Amino acid sequence: MFKIELPRHLTRKVWIGDIAVGGDAPVAVQSMTNTDTADIEGTVEQTYALWRAGSEMVRITVNTMEAAEAVPYIRDALAKRGCNVPLIGDFHFNGHKLLTSVPACAEALAKYRINPGNVGKGSKRDEQYAAMIETAVRYNKPVRIGVNWGSLDQAHLARMMDENAQLAEPREPDWVMREALITSALESARKAEEIGLARDKIILSCKLSGVQDLISTYQELASRCDYPLHLGLTEAGMGSKGIVASTAALSILLQQGIGDTIRISLTPEPGGDRTQEVVVAQEILQTMGLRSFTPMVVACPGCGRTTSTVFQHLAQDIQRYLRDQMPVWRNHYPGVEEMNVAVMGCVVNGPGESKHANIGISLPGTGEVPVAPVYVDGEKTVTLKGERIAEEFQAIVEEYVQSHYGSAQAPARNKTITIHPAS
């Protein structure tokens, strides 16, 4: 796979448990549970699933006393399963009460997420915000100050709107809204430092649901601070809409070196798999050449030459197999995440793509001889035929991983595996 080194917006490094964010650290992937945190078993199961899928941090809602009291038990249950993923507490409205009333929660969490628009109103706002920051200082915890356009501090926004209206040439309301997000984050960070939170304990985010608004806001925010930045298109939506919108926004910012952690805020389908947002985040980073998480499968889209669906099933099966193996492989076969597999459908591009792959199979298209040559590191090694092509090819992939990525082996060439369909 082609790898590039993009310039990075210069930020400070913040440690969240054992995960570094900012500085020269790679862009980290995080996700969030949608369980009732008071449901300890359910939250543990979903957190564990997100971690196995590759979420390097997991955020959980802490909105009630029962949820706060459950947090240390969730942390302990995960540790017993060998999962030490950092847990981030998501606080709104009553975080000051929960953090001060349940010290075990405050201590068990690896990071707090505070929304400046939801920490209180009027005279209570500063007091309640200070209580949360003081707790973070007491337990040496980092804080993400996360401003959302849907819950922006209305008093702050109204003040800025009034100031803008008094200008000789007032700005557009959209600009004022974006500026209100940025200044809310920066002023809240300054207050946190005044209270005693170290500068290397602060991460900022300013999340919106519009692609162009998000890009403009983060470009401006990055130009005005050196805090690590968490990226995410809030309320991105469901299915392809959420994936496309998030990819469009985050890819532009990442290409400009902006962003230190990302989350893809997809609305899951009813009963859908929460881990999809982790997969999408990983694939954005991997297809951009920024990180590698799992072997990539290249497959052709099919055409009139590929009337059989064999290559489609094989590509799907191999992709699922590779991802399912990664929780084990990443510990035993370092470098395997950079392997590439390509599944193609006919002789037009099949052999050529296969030769450019670590492993490639060129399945026969319509009217072609019903055999499937396999290429390993550019050399044709075997021709598969019959009813067990998929199983035999999977066995070849498994053997390649063991022989090329074991601890005693030198890293294999970073190539692509190509598979072409049979008729």
Which value, in Å, is the CA radius of gyration? 24 Å
The poorly predicted ranges are 408-414
Largest sheet: 8 strands, parallel
**Quaternary structure of the protein:** single chain
Overall mean pLDDT stands at 93
Coarse structural class: alpha/beta
Lateral strand order in the biggest sheet: 8-7-6-5-4-3-11-9
Q: What is the helix content?
A: 40-55%
How far apart are the first and last residues' alpha carbons, in Å? 29 Å
Please, how many helices? Answer: 13
Question: What percent of residues are in strands?
Answer: 15-25%
Number of strands: 18
Shape: elongated
Give a topology summary.
Layout: E1 14-16, E2 19-21, E3 28-32, H1 40-53, E4 57-61, H2 65-80, E5 87-91, H3 95-101, H4 103-108, E6 111-114, H5 123-138, E7 143-148, H6 154-165, H7 173-195, E8 202-207, H8 211-223, E9 230-231, E10 237-238, H9 239-255, E11 261-262, E12 266-267, H10 276-287, E13 296-299, H11 310-332, E14 340-344, H12 350-355, E15 359-362, E16 372-376, E17 379-384, H13 389-405, E18 417-420
Parallel strand pairs: 3-4, 3-11, 4-5, 5-6, 6-7, 7-8, 9-11, 10-12, 13-14, 13-18, 14-15, 14-18
Antiparallel strand pairs: 1-2, 15-16, 16-17
Helix pairs in contact: 1-2, 3-5, 6-7, 7-8, 8-9, 9-10
